[in-house]
Specification:
Elements lengths: L10 H12 L18 H14 L9 H9 L20 H12 L13 H14 L9 H9 L9 H13 L7 E6 L9 E2 L2 E2 H18 L3 E4 L9 H10 L4 E8 L9 E6 L8 H18 L3 E7 L2 H5 L4 E8 L3 H7 L2 H20 L12 H12 L1
Parallel strand pairs: 1-4, 1-5, 5-8, 6-7
Antiparallel strand pairs: 2-3, 6-8
The structure holds zinc ion (ZN).
The site of zinc ion has 5 residues, from loops.
């Protein structure tokens, strides 16, 4: 292998020059002619800059290591299919980008070193399996598309959470046929938060029925996790959702606090302190939170990640909503009004609709009505 240094002239230098130009390190000579094959002072300067960027010995000379690094730098992910070639492993910046992406998504591709080795292949195969792609260990167009579609919020996400995201994307924007488990909290002997004759279990039961009616009207299958006088355990409620193959799980509660001043609505989705989160759960919790805060006038207590059983054990995206504090006079008065519960039910329905539209409908929060949702469903059905 040739070693190129200042003063050299020839086609090998021309190749180095064009690579450095493509990398933005050397101004283009733009066909001015004379020096396109010459290793001049400007080229040496650019080579040094490149070597510095790449952590190579900064000597301004193009030896084997620098030459290989220059060639690697010309590959962008997607420009060529990538696979594990045992006898001659592929290397390049595209491989490094792939490795970094896999690592971001929680697959152990090893150190991102730009060389497509056995560990990169194993990580890629795991990703393909989790994502429902053809498991061939080759990073081709289909795999590339999948890698690019995943939201950066899936960072550190587990395969299970990625699958969840993909299912919603594939499910399409229509509500018809979606199966939702509505989980009214407490029930039976467990009345939940009880203040005077206002009982959380009864309120969320009534709310669940109102939501169920609207969902059924839009063609969804709505199932309740309990009967009026039953109180299944939290794991049983999650198992029920799993057994019926629910698309979403919505748990309805109201809160209590020792301070009568505490008030507002909050939503919860699965997520850990370590940063692993259900992207869909987080998205839905965000929609629910915004719709309810705008429509109901309840104070916005935001969306939060939790590892509660119903969020953790459900295989579908799950959101728990704590609607108002029954220990707060204003919240209790509002929730006791059936018309207010209609507003809450409508807000939750619209939030679910927004989830399946995945940002395709940018109608402002709080303005989408039940009638709009029905109209949208009917238009889609034609
Ligand atoms: Zn509760």
């Amino acid at each position: 292998m040739l070693v190129l240094r200042r003063g050299e002239d020839g086609p090998a230098v021309a190749e180095v020059r064009s690579t450095l130009t493509a990398l933005g390190l050397l101004p283009s000579t733009n066909g001015s002619g004379d020096h396109e094959t010459l290793f001049d002072e400007a080229v040496e300067h650019a080579v040094r800059a490149f070597q510095q960027q790449r952590g190579l010995i900064t000597d301004g000379v193009v030896g084997p290591a620098t030459y290989r690094a220059l060639r690697d730098a010309t590959y962008r992910l997607g420009a060529r299919p990538l696979a594990y070639l045992v006898s001659a492993p592929v290397s390049g910046d595209d491989v490094q980008t792939l490795q970094e992406r896999l690592l971001e998504l929680g697959y152990d591709a090893g150190r991102p070193n730009g060389v497509f080795g056995a560990q990169t292949e194993a990580a890629l195969r795991n990703f393909q399996r989790d994502y429902g792609l053809n498991v061939d260990g080759i990073c081709g167009p289909e795999t590339l598309r999948a890698l690019r579609q995943l939201s950066p919020r899936a960072r550190g996400g587990s395969p299970v959470l990625l699958r969840e995201q993909e299912r919603v994307r594939r499910a399409g924007p229509r509500l018809r046929g979606k199966r939702i488990v509505i989980d009214p909290g407490h029930g039976g002997a467990d009345t939940g938060v009880t203040v005077g004759d206002v009982r959380e279990a009864d309120l969320v039961w009534d709310l669940a029925r109102r939501l169920e009616g609207r969902m059924v009207a839009t063609g969804m299958q709505a199932l309740l996790s309990r009967g009026r006088d039953q109180c299944p355990s939290e794991p049983d409620r999650a198992n029920f959702a799993n057994e019926v193959g629910a698309d979403l799980f919505l748990s309805l509660h109201s809160d209590a606090n020792s301070s009568p001043l505490a008030q507002g609505v909050a939503s919860f989705h699965f997520g850990t302190e370590g940063g692993s989160t259900s992207t869909i759960g987080e998205t839905l919790a965000g929609f629910v939170q915004r719709e309810l805060a705008v429509r109901t006038g309840l104070r916005d207590c935001h969306a939060h990640r939790k590892t509660w059983d119903t969020l953790r054990l459900t295989r579908c995206p799950a959101v728990r909503i704590e609607i108002g504090y029954l220990t707060n006079h204003d919240d209790r008065r509002r929730l006791s009004d059936p018309a207010f519960r209609d507003v809450v039910a409508e807000g939750i329905l619209v939030a679910v609709k927004r989830l399946y539209l995945l940002g395709e409908n940018d109608q402002p929060t709080g303005t989408f009505t039940f009638a709009d949702v029905l109209r949208h469903e009917l238009a889609k059905a034609e």
